[in-house]
Amino acid sequence: MANYNILVHNKSGDDHEYVLFNEKPKPGPTTGKGVFQNAYITSKMVTNDTGTCNFQIQLVINAVTGTSSERADTGINDVIKAHDGLNNIAASGQGITDALQSSSGKTEPIAAISDQVSAQICQTTNGELSLGSAVHVSIVEGKPKFVTQEPKQTCAVDGSFSMLVDGSFESRSTDNIFVGFSCNDPYDNVNANTAIIPIPTQPNTTNIVTPVSRYYVSWGSRTIGERATSSTMGTPAVIEFYGKSSSSADVVHNKNGTWTVSYI
């Protein structure tokens, strides 16, 4: 589980509707209604000077483990994604159903998840520290399974959780055991797992996993005329929670169009 809060203060000199993105904003088609084609959450109109809007994001992060027909030596570059949401978690790749498919577009499954469990990252929310999970992986009846889980501050790294693998298998096993994580999108009730990121596994190791949590805030407007349609898009603010214990960001939209971002 990870909870993020982004509070936007409008000091720009004009009223605006603000838009939250989980990937870099992309312009929409000139004939469409929306200025952006990949808006994640849109606020109501925020008045200048005194107005604020509050974006709240809750992510259910799952620790996963399984086996694959190919070794995940590329680490977190070997990303498998269910759909186009939450691209801050998934960089590239295609498809997950009961089995995972490679990002090269192959139709045959290359990996299968044998177990998953919800994981808490180490972060401070409203002044209270939530300890990061420490999940333990062992081979049970021939498959990697999570055998215990405990909150453990010594997962050490802010914004992270840890996965402890025991010595119940040998290195470079033919099963190509991996660990990793997936993320649930709270705004998508259809696709449960947005992204699976496999990490190659060695016996008797501790894997510290830090999900990348990057968001963008911008604004946009459209003017439709007889001879032309024009779209105006503000340069976005970048909010980066990666590796931070803080789960809240304070964002000020300044009169010169810039943004001031602080973490509280």
Task: Describe this entry's structure for a reader.
By secondary structure, the protein is mainly beta. The protein has strands at residues 2-10, 16-21, 41-46, 52-68, 80-81, 100-101, 109-119, 123-125, 128-130, 133-140, 143-151, 161-165, 177-184, 195-200, 205-209, 214-224, 229-233, 237-240, 248-253, 259-263. Residues 73-109 have low confidence and may be disordered.
What is the topology?
Blueprint: E1 2-10, E2 16-21, E3 41-46, E4 52-68, E5 80-81, E6 100-101, E7 109-119, E8 123-125, E9 128-130, E10 133-140, E11 143-151, E12 161-165, E13 177-184, E14 195-200, E15 205-209, E16 214-224, E17 229-233, E18 237-240, E19 248-253, E20 259-263
Parallel strand pairs: 1-19, 10-12
Antiparallel strand pairs: 1-4, 2-3, 2-16, 4-7, 4-13, 5-14, 6-7, 8-9, 10-11, 12-15, 13-14, 16-17, 16-18, 19-20
